[in-house]
Amino acid sequence: MSAMSERTRIRRLPAKAVTERLELDRVLDAGLVAHVTVIDHDVPLALPVAYARRHDEVLFHGSTGSRLFRRLADGEPTCLTVTLLDGLVLARSAFESSMHYRSAMLLGTATRLSGDDELDALRTITEHLLPGRWQECRQPSAKERTATMTLSLPIDEWSLKVSEGDPEDDPADVIDDTYGRIWAGVVPVQESFGPPRRAVDCPDDIPTPAYVQGWRR
Ligand SMILES: Cc1cc2nc3c(=O)[nH]c(=O)nc-3n(C[C@H](O)[C@H](O)[C@H](O)COP(=O)(O)OP(=O)(O)OC[C@H]3O[C@@H](n4cnc5c(N)ncnc54)[C@H](O)[C@@H]3O)c2cc1C
Question: For the structural domain made of 14-166, what CATH number should be given?
Fold first, then answer.
């Protein structure tokens, strides 16, 4: 299936739909947190998870003790979203005020990875979140591997919605004597890293790694 499946066709504000796979990859590669849905005893839950894209899959991991992860591994259909907030849109009216965003939604069924494939997935997730770290940090032990479940969701059926541009005010508000004098525009929102802070038990003579100093967001 593709972006244009009937289930993932954007009906509300379809002009904001983006169907290029390259753009989807850009959004997935820019985000750090995904939300994965699972139904638990008729209660829908959206789990925030760290994730990474590996070619045509989105990878995420959790505890083998997690009931919710086990449900996903057992083949429960899921929806994974990644949301990047790019700005607050101030229109003249409260109704037209909105947000700039890039929002990806994937539908499908996750499968559990094992062996070297799982190890590569763990490396991919670590390197997506902490580029440069995998080669320096201690590798997962057998016990840690046993405690970890790594899932793969194929990038098969997806949608991407992008909201950008000026506020879309009611034309009557723009020329209104009162409302037309209200400031309108966009306040960009950006995610950024602060300066690295040393752990209390990290000796002072260990320098902050160059790869960490190079992180920009
Ligand atoms: C940061 C942010 C804030 C938002 N705030 C609001 C809000 O306050 N109120 C509001 O009504 N809407 C808001 N939206 C938009 C909202 O996510 C839905 O797109 C919108 O409500 C339309 O819903 P619908 O059921 O009519 O979608 P439809 O267009 O009928 O959905 C059909 C299909 O389109 C796809 N789709 C729908 N929405 C999205 C999406 N956001 N990203 C990717 N694919 C999508 C899915 O595959 C879905 O199955 C916000 C979106 C973002 C990212």
Answer: 2.30.110.10
